Amino acid sequence: MTDYRKRVRTALEGGWRFAGLHASEGGSVVRVLLAAPDGSLRLEDVDVEGRAVPSIVDLAPAADWDEREAADLHGLVFDGHEPLRPLIDHGAATDRWTVRVTGDDAYEIAVGPIHAGVIESGHFRFHVVGDRILQLDARLFYKRRGLEQTAEGRSLEGGTAFVARACAACSVANGVAYAHACEDALGLEPTAELARARTILLELERIWSHLNDVAAVCAGVGLAAGNNLFAALTERARRLNRELTGHRFLFGTVRIGGSALELGAKDVSAARGELESLRRQAASGWRELTFNSSFQDRLPDIGVVGAADATRLGAVGPAARAAGIAEDVRSVSPRLTYDRFEAVVPERPAGDVQARLDQRAIELWQSFELLDGLLAAPVAPAAAAPTGRERKIGVGRVESPRGATSCVVERSGDRIERLRLRTGSYANWPVVAFAAADNLLPDFPLVNKSFELCYACADR
Amino acid sequence: MLTMLKDLRRLRREERLAQPDRGRSLAIRHVDAGSCNGCEHELTLASSPYYDLQRFGLGIVASPRHADVLLVTGAVTSRMREALLVAYDAMPEPRRVAALGDCALGCNLLGTAADLVGPVEAVVPVDLRIPGCPPTPDEIAEALLRLIDSRTG
User: Fold this and answer.
1) What's the pLDDT at B151?
2) What is the pLDDT of residue B23?
3) B chain contacts of residue A147, beta-carbon cutoff 8 Å
4) Fold classified for A3-79
5) Which of A8, A85, A88, A412 qualifies as a FRET site for B71, CA 20 to 30 Å off?
6) Taking CB atoms and an 8 Å cutoff, what residues of chain B touch A172?
């Protein structure tokens, strides 16, 4: 076993989690990002010899997509990663990126990239017998814009725009992960006031996002009343965002080294009032959903991802917690204001559609409570403080509405040499494909909506 | 369930959404050609009780075969170009194309030359432009209604 693999294995055995992998310096080095239970982050490097580099996919199956992406971008060969299927290379023949499924009555259904609704673009290839899904090959990256590559050579400050463009639904989480990475490299540490401003923005984003997710699951089973009610609440949450920051998706609120967010006593008091009203309405709607038996009947035992599989596949966020894995980056985020935050899991952590939906509700109540405390005092513009510890490579990790989002920034002075953004959606897409297997095809939209991942921030 | 329906009825009463007198309709097929997902999220809420796009006869349909309007979001990526053209070709005449959002209009595009084709009009002819980053649900609704009203006969 190579030294690199040994280092990664020792870390994983010591409770560290795989948090991302990318190739850098023109494909001559591969870096693995690891996250400790206490939140500390570290990189392990390995030099590429010729085009070859040892794979760690057997040690950390969550590295599957990362290694395939690095292989496609830089022509690397990950020794031991068999078969090394293309991921973002759409030029490859179908049989190179799909799993061959044969047998009596087995056939394929190709769906997308354009879907029948207001949905982002991506391609799903279902291998089925009758209505039963045997295997799902998801092919994303139709929306690849090459944002990370275009950001190379720009200033760190200029990089903010590329991260923001990756995804509207995760713009704050991605922005804070990037800002943290840059500040880590520049030797800056958020002051308490800056940390609070960012935490408010992160929780505002989570609230509209989770309200939207509940609406999406209602839409997934065709419950129009539930969908409409939670869509209305989502609208109110976005209007509140605009009241507080001037933008419904909180665009332009996160920058490196400081925050311009300014909320007076009247603003925060009005925001708390509106959030309390939203919370009551959401709780009332949630109660209605709980007692709607025809709705509830659709949810259990569908799209099951148990704790062992969730851990193995590197699931993050509500999807992992719904399987009983009590991990949340917020509980280990000293650069944000999550004092004594504890990850919660549902009473019935079955890892199915019901558990993932329940998890959204639990987290909504948590976020409403967090925001009520965070907005107890006015918010003033704030700046980060120098620590004197400058580094070439900075890292950041944030809990987005969809799970742990990691960012690595490699710099040369003020210029970006390499930027990697690994979002909660990127981590969870392979989990969706796993969850779909052995379910009925008509349940797939419901399974998919119980994750409600973004395509945009996976594709970049 | 009754409480939920009551809440929605109250919301409708309070919002006092106008009852349309247009007597026309538009069937819309949405295509995401490479957006950041912001336009999708706002378009989704255009159907929410605060805007209720459906009351104007505006509905999202599942196939371009059923569509009057192709509503395209995002700057067109090189991987979505072909799918966009296939959807456009599948539409019956008369057909219109609406470009939704600043990216679709070609404003401040970010990405590599290999990955991005350009604005929607670089691939299909555009009849309606809806600016915004992203346009709000009411801006989307107003623009689409202008398209209905501009039709003659």
Assistant:
1) 62
2) 72
3) 110-111
4) Beta Polymerase; domain 2 (3.30.460)
5) A88
6) none
Q: What DSSP element (H or E) covers A107?
A: strand A106-111
| Percentage of residues in chain A having pLDDT higher than 90 | 95
Residues A8 and B23: their CA atoms lie apart, in Å, by 66
How far is it, in rounded angstroms, from Cα B17 to Cα B11?
10
Tell me which chain A residues have a C-beta less than 8 angstroms from the C-beta of B79.
90, 113, 141-144
What is residue B36's predicted lDDT score, i.e. its pLDDT? 96
Of B4, B40, B111, the CB nearest to A225: B4
Write down the CATH superfamily of domain A170-411: Cytochrome-c3 Hydrogenase, chain B (1.10.645.10)
Higher pLDDT among residues A435 and B59, named by residue: A435
Answer for the pair A53, A78: CB distance below 8 angstroms, yes or no.
yes
Tokens of A308: 């062992």
Distance between start and end Cα atoms, chain B: 44
Domains of chain B in start order, with CATH, are 24-150 (3.40.50.12280)
Confidence grade of residue B153 (pLDDT, cut at 50, 70, 90): very low
B44-80: pLDDT as tens digits: 999 999 998 888 888 899 999 999 999 999 999 999 9
Please state, in angstroms and as integers, the Cα–Cα distance from residue B81 to each residue in A74, A244, B106, following that order.
24, 38, 15
Residue to test with chain A: of B7, B36, B85, most A Cβ within 10 A: B36
Whether the Cβ atoms of residue A90 and residue A97 lie closer than 8 Å to each other: no
- Tell me the CA end-to-end span of chain A in Å, nearest whole number: 34
Write out chain B residues lying below 8 Å of A161, CB-based: 110
The two tokens of residue A329 are 């980056």
Q: DSSP code of A440?
A: B
Is the Cβ–Cβ distance between A8 and A30 less than 8 Å?
no
Q: Print burial letters for B109-119: b (CB count within 10 Å at least 16), e (below 16).
A: bbbeeebbbbb
List the one residue out of A422, A390, A417 whose CA is nearest residue A189.
Answer: A390
For A327-362, write each residue's pLDDT tens digit: 999 999 999 999 999 999 999 999 999 999 999 999
Window B:47-106, CB contacts with A under 8 Å:
47-50, 60, 62-63, 74-75, 77, 79-80, 83, 87
Q: Which chain B residues contact residue A116 at CB under 8 A?
A: 62-63
Q: Which of A114, A167, A229 lies at the smallest CB-CB distance from B37?
A: A167
Question: In 3D, which of A179, A185, A192, A190 has the Cα closest to residue A385?
Answer: A190
**β-pair type (B128-130, A29-35):** unpaired
* Inter-chain CB proximity A231 and B44 less than 8 Å: yes
CA angle at residue B33 from B31 to B36, to 5 degrees?
A: 105
Residue A90: both structure tokens together: 């759409």
